[in-house]
Design a protein that fits this description.
It is a single chain. The chain folds into 3 domains: 3-125, 3-Layer(aba) Sandwich (Rossmann fold); 140-203, no CATH class; 205-370, Rossmann fold. The protein is an alpha/beta fold. It has helices at 11-22, 34-43, 50-64, 84-94, 111-121, 127-154, 163-177, 181-196, 214-218, 226-232, 243-247, 260-267, 279-291, 306-322, 337-358, and strands spanning 3-4, 69-74, 100-105, 206-212, 235-239, 252-253, 258-259, 296-302, 326-331. The strands form 3 sheets. It has a 4-stranded parallel beta sheet, with helices on both faces. Helix 14 (306-322) links the parallel strand 8 and strand 9. The structure holds iron/sulfur cluster (SF4). Iron/sulfur cluster (SF4) binds at residues 49, 51, 79-81, 213, 215, 276-277, 302, 305-308.
Length: 370
């Protein structure tokens, strides 16, 4: 059995670490690329969500590398994410690929089936070793999240463009190689020292928050490296979700330091119930970013995403009420990098003018304002 899964930001650190620890064979799909996108768009339905196509491309490339068992999180509405596994299974079977799809569902009624599937995946290893492997992998993911957050906060001060990104890549390699808690502890100190050693210059600050559909927020290749672009344009950046925040079923966001519920309360003036995906958080976290002194918010939205379409229709009202600029960026396989770059540049300038006009001092903490 050769297991694989789709890319999503630093998810490969979690999954790769779990299977390494367990000694279970796995295949890492090739890095996301234009080919990944073309494969997914060719085989996926035209009006399917963009992430369904990109992750379909990952699966095809993983099968080409020898994977025969594909893992996908599944569930049910109101958003279409829950149906990806079944849709992709049918598409890949019709295309003639030989594989087994393993949907992992975490609703209470589906837990017994999920446990049976996990039992197959661990191939005779004990439940205790699986638990330990997952716990260790989450520790790695938490460290990666904090390093990525550090990169978002410092990139705009780089003396040489790309220096923070290069430092972050060195840190990724260190974390990937860590094989024990003791090693991970040592690496934490070393990794933050690497990040802090990047030469900086003084720069006028402008603060931009990122909200949107979780896959697009977390996956840099397909969001056209929006965080890096904003950092290189001189923006201190924060995103409203990190991988370990998303993996927590409890609604805690350990990296950002507040609970999802706080965001839902802030959205309440505009949206009183969940609409699937991160729709309500895109609204609530825009209010949150405003309360924390940010100068603008970028919403990332896959083409045809239902929850983000709802949020997009509400955000102009939030923007008008609070006086904070909001830029909605809709991404699909037709989106041009140059067009997005131009819009981000104009938006960063707008946010900078706003900061100057308001004459506010920067608040570099991201603690909830409630
Ligand atoms: S959140 Fe949006 S893009 Fe993601 S699966 Fe749901 S509808 Fe599709």
């Amino acid at each position: 059995m050769k297991i694989s899964w789709p890319h999503m930001g630093s998810l490969e650190f979690v999954m790769g670490s779990v299977f390494e620890e367990m000694g279970v064979d796995y295949v890492l799909p090739p890095p996301n690329s234009q080919r990944t996108l073309e494969l997914g768009a060719r085989h996926g339905p035209e009006f399917a969500c963009f992430p369904l196509k990109t992750t379909l491309g990952n699966f095809i490339e993983a099968i080409e590398k020898g994977a025969d068992t594909l893992i996908m999180v599944a569930g049910r509405g109101p958003c279409r994410f829950g149906y990806y596994a079944e849709t992709q299974r049918r598409i890949l079977e019709e295309a003639g690929y030989d594989f087994r799809m393993v949907p992992l569902e975490f609703e209470p009624a589906k837990i017994p089936a999920t446990l049976r599937r996990l039992h197959d995946l661990k191939q005779g290893r004990s439940w205790l070793s699986l638990y330990r492997a997952i716990k260790f992998a989450l520790n790695k993911a938490y460290l990666i999240d904090r390093l990525e957050r550090q990169a978002l906060h410092q990139r705009y001060l780089d003396r040489e463009k790309g220096a923070t990104t290069a430092a972050l890549k060195r840190c990724y390699a260190l974390v990937w190689d860590a094989g024990s808690y003791a090693a991970l502890d040592g690496i934490e100190e070393e990794a933050f020292a690497i990040m802090h050693s990047v030469p900086r210059v003084e720069r006028e600050e402008v603060k931009i928050g990122i909200v949107g559909e979780f896959y697009l927020v977390l996956e840099p290749f397909f969001n056209l490296n929006v965080e890096e672009q904003l950092g290189n344009l001189g923006a201190y950046v924060e995103r409203n979700i990190y991988l370990t925040d998303w993996l927590r079923p409890s609604g805690e966001r350990p990296v950002l330091g507040h609970r999802e519920h706080a965001s839902e309360l802030l959205a309440m003036a505009y949206l009183t119930h969940k609409v699937g995906g991160e729709g309500i958080f895109s609204v609530g976290d825009t209010v949150l970013f405003h309360n924390q002194g940010f100068d603008g918010v970028v919403q990332l939205m896959p083409f045809t995403c239902m929850p983000e379409t709802i949020a997009k229709s509400i955000l102009p009202l939030v923007s008008r009420d609070l006086g904070i600029p909001v830029l909605s960026v809709v991404i699909d396989e037709m989106t041009g990098r140059a067009g997005v770059a131009t819009r981000l540049e104009a938006f960063t300038d707008l946010a900078r003018f706003r900061r100057r006009a308001h004459g506010r001092e920067a608040d570099l903490t991201l603690q909830p304002a409630f």
